[in-house]
Amino acid sequence: MSLTRRNLMQSGGYAAMLLTAAGACSRPDQAASNDLAELDGVETAARLKSGELGPTEAVEAAIARAERVDPQINAIVTKTFRRARKEAAAKGANAGLWAGVPTFVKDLDDVTGVTTRFGSRAFPFYKGKEQTPLIDAFLGMGVVSLGKSATPEFGLSATTESIATGQTRNPWNTEHSTGGSSGGAAALVASGVVPIAHASDGGGSIRIPASCCGNVGLKVSRGRNPMARPEDAVGPISLAVHGVQTRTVRDTAAVAATLALPSSESGLAPLPLVTAPGKERLRIAVTTQGLAGRAPDPAVKQAAEDAAALCADLGHHVEEASLPVDDGLSEDFTLYWAAFAHATVAMWEKTFHLPRNGLAFEPFTIGLADRFEREEADFPGAIERLQAVAARMAAFHETYDLVLSPVVTAPPPEIGYLGATLDYETLMQRLTDYVQYTVLYNVTGAPAISLPLSMSPDGLPVGAMFGAPLGREDRLLALAYELEEAKPWAGRRPAVWG
User: At the fourth CATH level, which superfamily is domain 5-329+365-486?
Assistant: First the structure.
């Protein structure tokens, strides 16, 4: 399929209704605002389309915000401001539904002619010669990329603290982590630099930063979007999908509908443009038990309980339930993650004719690659067990429409707690304790969303995660609209704001 503007419109189902949706669910605070940082992406796109706002004006304002904010949060690793100005000046009325909306691309994906560092010292001067279909589709919406957002090395960690590019800091409290691996994207959206930013999720990398930074973060179903890199799949399972960080449900819904492939290609039910709360009352299973047995911190447990109580107050049937998975899922997922690190390191060794070393790679990357070599004989069994989880969860969803859980076990940790210079064993144990919930949906391929429903006693965001059966992003988004109305987060602003 050639991802032209025409079939992007078609593949999004109801994406052409974007501007209508902007009016239908217009928020009074945005309609009256003259501060472009306050506008979400749908409102920005609507003003651009109407001519009230020009692409150059929108991009220049975002660049000014980036220059003010980034010295405090270190979320941008490559600036393409000059290129963005040229693109903005060339934007016309037919340049896409989102023509002129400023954004960033995560630094794990190539943009033609722009450096991709992968958060690593191993690739300091690499520039991709062509973009993937996913990035073609994302930029084909008409957005203007201002550069590359920070990520941990190869996206392997749940914090964005890279030896190569430094520590990305949380706008709510710069002594704390943004989460990872889409931490740069999350920080740039949370701080008001841009309304949306490209992100990806191979183990929680959209949902974890959304929780840490107070954003909305949707991981779509496997196959929903165009392919990113084929090499993201190790063996017969592809864990990673792509999406965005946003501050509003309607932005998330609009981008998801715009990027969605037609059912003939995805094999999934069509994804409509969801614009309002749903009327269906849902059966929601609640669990706070982590996949590796780690109980959440009190603030996180309270946030999940508060979200459950809110759903019950809205008329949904909510009850505690145990998921049909065991502790082995965490170990099997880790071996898969190790296989990805090993493939990356082995490719580097073959390309540069050098052995892996601590000058090119971080201790965690080397530790994962070494682990795979030690445990490679177990890999086929791990893949088989991971594949079996999807069927068990599909059966579980015959009883429950959605699953509510925490996103991670604790509020955003302090910078350094998951730092890149830690030895492999220490960091692996801390990450295993922290990332207990998100990987399930990467394994099954089903969608899940993090919503910024709570704040910790220390003033840090704490998300709640809802998971759905494969292909039911519409159900997640309808509930998200309902929760956003019932417990609005639009007025919250972090300490670092554009």
Answer: Amidase signature (AS) domain (3.90.1300.10)
